[in-house]
Amino acid sequence: MRDDPLYLEPRLDPRTAALLDSAPLLHTLVDALGSPLNVLLPDRTADNVRRFRAVLDHHRLAGRIFFAHKANRSSSLVRRLTTTDADIDVASLDELRHALGSGFTGSRIMATGPKDPAFLWLAVRGGACLNADGPAELERAAALVRAHGLPRVRVLLRLSGFETSGTRRLMRESRFGTPVKSLHRLLDVLARHRDELEPIGVGYHLDTTSLDEKAAALEGCLRAMEELRVHGFRPRVIDVGGGFGVNYLAYAAQWERWTTELTAAVMGSRPPLTRGGHGYGLRVENGTLKGGLSLYPAHRPTAGAAYLDELLSLPAPSLGRPLGTLLLESLYDLYVEPGRALADQSGLTLGRVLEVRPTDSGESTVRLAMNAGDVGLEDHGVLMDPVVLPRDPAPPGAQGPVGQVGPVGQVGPVGQVGPVGQVGPVAVHLMGNLCLEADLITRRTVFLPRPPRPGDLLAFANTAGYCMDFGATHAQQQPLARKVAVHEEAGRWRWCLDEEYWPFDRTGEPQG
Amino acid sequence: MRYDNITDAIGDTPLVRIDPEVHGLRHIDLYAKLEMLNPFGSLKDRAAWSMTRRELAGAKERGETIVELSSGNTAKALALIAGLHGLPFKSVTNRMRIPEIKDLLLLLGAEIEELPGRSECLDPTDTDDPLTLFHQRLSRPGGAHLHTDQYFNALNTEAHATGTGPEIIADLDGRAPDWFIACVGTAGSSTGVARALRAHDPAVRVVGLVGRKADFIPGIRTVDEVQEVGIFDPATYDTLEAVGADEAIDGMLTLLRRCGLLAGPTSGAAYFGGVRHLRALDAELTERRTAVFIVCDRVESYLDYVRQRRPDLLGRPPVKNSVATLTDTEVRSAAVVDVEDAQKWIAAQRPLVIDLRGPFAYAALHIDGSVNIVDELFEELLRGGLPFGKRQPVLLACPVGEKSARYAALLTRMGHPDVRSLAGGIIAWRDAGAPLVRD
Questions:
Q1: CATH T-level assignment (fold) for domain A63-246+299-336
Q2: Where is the Orn/DAP/Arg decarboxylase 2 N-terminal domain (chain A) (predicted)?
Q3: Cys-Cys with A455: which of A391, B107, B140, B384 at CB 3.0–4.6 Å?
Q4: CB–CB contact B364 A321 (8 Å)
């Protein structure tokens, strides 16, 4: 068992799996548009919206589902969402412009995060809801409304620092939001600006995977709503933010085995699993394991809409009844802001294999026509194997004619992978195309079921949430990934450039 | 047996033979070391006392707080010892998942700090876990803490090397058992007992049991988590095997129902994992051998743990007059009344208006004159029969009119002639602009 390849196979929904089965199409796209290439599946994002809506319906809650735009820069996702009942949450001036330009009206937009003057101005001007960070921001928004005679702006108060009863919960400090203890400061501003600001509710956005912490925060919001009522406001929304998570891997057992082997490698009881023995946050001191595993929990039994369902089903720490029941009974609407979870299975990133170089350690180095910024799995601590899409569909091991590999001419010699004739699993290290020692697609030794060859594509599945373009830059003037949007129509894949995508077909009819 | 102090009652726990009929081993005598009979209820009494006894006087003088990273039994024992000696006690943990123990600790006067969960948006440059940061805070000069540090404290191990281990040998008439089976938490008991037994007879085999990774068994660490324990040394164990939560509960049931031992899930894991390990060896044996496992604590605190994983074990007979027994037809035929008619009906007939929502929501806004009976209480109330006369008309209200329709159907089945449900519930009432009050 110990020597079996330590696969971390990605979870693929049927649509993504079907797309990966269409390797010739993907090769054609990369041939035409270059490597790396991002492929978006906007229909899947719409499916994810329905899943979240089903959870709200199940709890009989009214509410809104906001796509957190920062998870992906794609136009196709945003434009597709305009046709669903989703709203959008934007965190910069350009995201706001993009949302407006894609067809979202101000009533369906929420502005979150740090706001510079231009962003705040356009948000208030456009009638977006403000997710307000603190009293100063409320003052600035009120001043804009007054100075320009604008309609009252809807505001949600972002709160933090929730108290727990019984046991004290130490929380990670957040830069954002107003501590619940200082709620009175927000109320003072609101009281002075009743004509300019319309507080529709309160919310939180906690950076944690812990349901208990979120339950404490949600209960804190219920109490804060009472405060607002006592002060004569009519709030009716609680915003529980995002952080519902994604399950990236197909098999829990692979994840558990890999993390255990990593622990063993850090402890020195097996060979390293990573380049340079990197421990992903773990280290040894005096024979004892220290540090924390700085990896995304890549296999999660409960993620996305199911996580929200679990949160709503959880009893409130001190009020006792399930949180969903309390929201419903209090006649409150629920806002959620999933980014990663709404983009789940909504896109993949393709990179062409440029060179496969055997090393003395027996593990090959695979150089890709992409870099670590193009597929930010490592940056976000997500470990997941790429899927090999052979250039040559001939049976593995058969040598394809060299001249047929790729139109760009980046052809490495074939047959250099591992021992001669090796066709089974191989251990490889994935390198990027930057002239930097640090440009590793992943620090992990990746096991692939067959040796990749120059011209093959490696498909990184499920990158649409934060891993696709979040860190992509023009460093060293390597090309940035182009984006295409694909959808299925009458059993065939249709594709267009991401910026050419609109949610109707070329005849103007809604997509079939 | 007369003691001057409850801490004198720590140790000297019984060693009880498990009936071979139960475990089915033919050549191995299996004994349970009943550590749950320690005065504070667990094996950890020994470690807690061992780590504090020499420190208490000084700590009192310096006004220190006893601090431990513990999610359960160690904290319980330390809290009681701290209380006995007039010291405060604080527990810090990210593993406290047993609500009964949390509440018990609060009752004992402990202060509990829970560590935050994992970050959803990782900062890969932040590689220090919360525990490390906590340790750094504790070791800052000027802090008035007595940090017992069970995962690294040699006195934890020593308690078992000088107590638990020798007691087992004494009770086996001066022989060490052939196998010693222990679950690995702090590794203190397994390491200490193993040391004592092997000093007596180097041939003793030590079986360490860890939790399966995806599962959670209170008090046991997983195969990765044991690496974080300073006392843990893989060389202590001849084998490390994993036990799942379900198996632990199965083992616990055997101890409870067939052995008369009020043992908790960790003990169940020790029994289950022990018997599983020994069964294969038993078949090859021709002479008698002995094995000992630890029953480390009692079952009472783990009822919620069992309820979550195996609710069938706590099954209750169906109750009378339950909404769960209603048919769809009954629910559909419940009398409903829309907001406008309800307002007229209230004005004309003065029905009893019952709001089935929780008191928190009711207090914020409700229909004037309504009474609040939370659905859970209402359900209980109905088990005994109708809680109001049949001539009293009743209007039931819930958030969306779904629950109230079910209760209206149930009351109708129970013989009430005029009970109606507010269609669309309080939300429809609000949306129609009908008055809601808070008083």
A1: TIM Barrel (3.20.20)
A2: 51-261
A3: A391
A4: no
